[in-house]
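Components:
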Amino acid sequence: MDDPILVEVLRGGLVESRHRGAAAVVNGEGVTVLAVGDVGRPVFPRSAVKPLQALPLIESGAADRYGLSDEELALACASHSGEPAHVEGVARLLAKAGLDESALACGTHWPSSQAAAFALAKSGLPSALHNNCSGKHAGFLCLARAMGIDHVGYWRPEHPVQLAVRAALEDLTGATLSQARCAVDGCSVPTWAMPLTNLAHGFAKFGRGRGLSPLRADAAARLRGACAQKPWYVAGTGRFCTEIMRLLGARVLVKTGAEGVFCGALPELGLGIAVKCDDGAGRAAEAIMAVLIARFLPLSDQEHVAVARFAQPTLRNWSGIEVGALRVTGAL
Amino acid sequence: MDDPILVEVLRGGLVESRHRGAAAVVNGEGVTVLAVGDVGRPVFPRSAVKPLQALPLIESGAADRYGLSDEELALACASHSGEPAHVEGVARLLAKAGLDESALACGTHWPSSQAAAFALAKSGLPSALHNNCSGKHAGFLCLARAMGIDHVGYWRPEHPVQLAVRAALEDLTGATLSQARCAVDGCSVPTWAMPLTNLAHGFAKFGRGRGLSPLRADAAARLRGACAQKPWYVAGTGRFCTEIMRLLGARVLVKTGAEGVFCGALPELGLGIAVKCDDGAGRAAEAIMAVLIARFLPLSDQEHVAVARFAQPTLRNWSGIEVGALRVTGAL
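Structure:
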């Protein structure tokens, strides 16, 4: 099935580029409330499921044992921009578990924040702490330490940490995570492809706790609370996830993933959202997510205006001249 | 008409993302040799037509009057990476016309070369010279000076410089560049949408000179020679345009444009190529262009292997682990 065009990129009065995609909104009972495009095709969720991957960190007692703060729990759910306070937070998280950056297996890249990258370039080079996934990896390491097992190789599919993460993902999404649908993520941990309906169902359950064990529901609530309290730690300055959660607080949890994936929960409505832009474009996935939030969540006029800025961003060139805009189509 | 999927992005054994697009190969007489997807839809060529936009710089006598070198002419056709020798070359080009960077209206951005950007960040900030279009703008300014007219506002559609550029584009492509299809490019000059067949025809004529006035054919040959001699100045270290032209010399001229556009000429065959990836992805446009070059141009085994690396790039994560690949589909 061909996915419909969901986002058009305008330059002047003409459509310059087009993004196709699929989106699912599902409630806690697994009932699909909205389906656009092929919502049954397996999609690698990539970093969009980091909040779900962090559940065992709480459930195991590791977060309590090491006294993790909301900032540190938000970092465990984050694709952060590598700004100084992100990096310091991850280092602190690791230190609480008696480890340091040498234990991280996520690889090294420059901060995605241009300002942070250029500031860092003046005096040094990035480390694995600057990798956008370092908080998640620090959480995995913390979990391994609390389990009393060797943390080396914590990123491999057969390591007890990843088995625990996989079990949580299966419980939440109801998807069978088969080897045939497993690939290696950008930070080397496994990523399992599953339909958008399963992803959205998982986020619906994560957002409200229904259909989960009391322990797991409590863990989800704690992670949601941490992200709502400290949204800057989930992404960074000016980023979509941070700005949307800062604006709407605990009424929404949103998490971006690579290659045009976006997941979210609307806890007060018991709904979960999963989006995949076919071509992997983050700009389109953000616009789609903004439109879906505005469609389902009751918003004040002021909130509506703020969310609409993400749904229909204006495009400007290097001289600040308005050259076009993104527009979500009627297919959504 | 729906464009077909031309490039698949694989992760593990599954398709993670998909890029649709259109491509046209046209000969100097305007006969379409290959058409995939909707090759009649208007496409903003963006920076892909920079070599054509540089024709008046030669034809006017400006290049001779100011003694422009091959490096400087290649920069006038370039989307450069902002590496030190690019920036120095553009400054030199401007100085030959008695101007400096304060005359540039392209706007400022950091070098697209990460190494150049971080090196620059240690000691300073970027200027308009670092803008990837600064060489083209320097050429426009040089043209204005040689025409003996006020260079201020050289980027506006009604300025004689842009009128000369527009006339050259119309002559080469045979397209009528109407106001309804005009938009503002990233560097503020006009960009006119036209069908891929017209773009490909324009590059076929540019590549061989047939169908052009002797003056214009000579100008095209000089620009082709400059790009073939100094391909590093057309893009930069490790970039597709630079590497392909370094590999194949004067047998190919390729030029990338924003939003998934790619144009090229195969002079010895008299063919022009124009590609547009629907969603604007450069990674897909490069793979498509590499496949088309390998299909039409007779290559040695060694050249074939080198071009294939661009047609089917391997994707690695931050730890260097192979996680997937790009694959051009049978639709091309």
